[in-house]
Amino acid sequence: MVAGLNSECRIWRIEVDADDAVGGALITGTVVYDYLPIRLQAVPEEQLLMQQGLQTIRTFTAILQPGTLDIRERDELEIIDPYDDIYYGVRFRITSVTYSSHNQRDPRNFIRLGMIRNIRAHSLQ
Fold first, then answer.
1. Cβ(78)–Cβ(12) under 8 Å?
2. pLDDT attached to residue 26
3. Which CATH architecture fits 7-117?
4. 3-state SS string for the chain
5. DSSP assignment, residue 48?
6. What is the block-wise mean pLDDT of the chain (125 residues), using blocks of 10 residues?
7. Cα(67)–Cα(69) distance, rounded to whole angstroms?
8. Does residue 35 contact residue 11 with C-beta atoms inside 8 Å?
9. SS3 for 112?
């Protein structure tokens, strides 16, 4: 594991399947990448918005390697290792993908992700 990348994650590609019997869309997912080294950080909320009492969206940033992966907006990232991590098993919705300016063959190549916490309704189904 590269220094500084202290967790491992799984990337899910989320798709909408055909409608079910009552007309609702079924959300399905496929694991695209597994056991990727990652560093996850929470972005602090704007103090001005909190003082005004506005509800803010909890955002996160992540750095992962290698930087040659096909990761898209609306994919989901799940923390799978270490087991004692505070975000273990939690899924995050990817909102932005930024590739580094290193050459694709450079081992220092990385991807920076912008994410929000994904909470599923009816998760017991």
1. yes
2. 67
3. Beta Barrel (2.40)
4. CCCCCCEEEEEEEEEEEEECCCCCEEEEEEEEEEEEEEEEEEECCCHHHHHCCCCCCCEEEEEECCCCCCCCCCCEEEEEECCCCCCECCEEEEEEEEECCCCCCCCCCCEEEEEEECCCCCCCC
5. H
6. 80 79 72 94 73 72 91 93 90 93 87 83 49
7. 6
8. no
9. strand
Is the Cβ–Cβ distance between 57 and 77 less than 8 Å? no
Coil/strand/helix, residue 120? coil
The SS3 of residue 47 is helix
Main-chain phi, psi angles of 13, to 5 degrees: -100, 115
Cβ atoms of 91 and 77 within 8 Å: the answer is yes
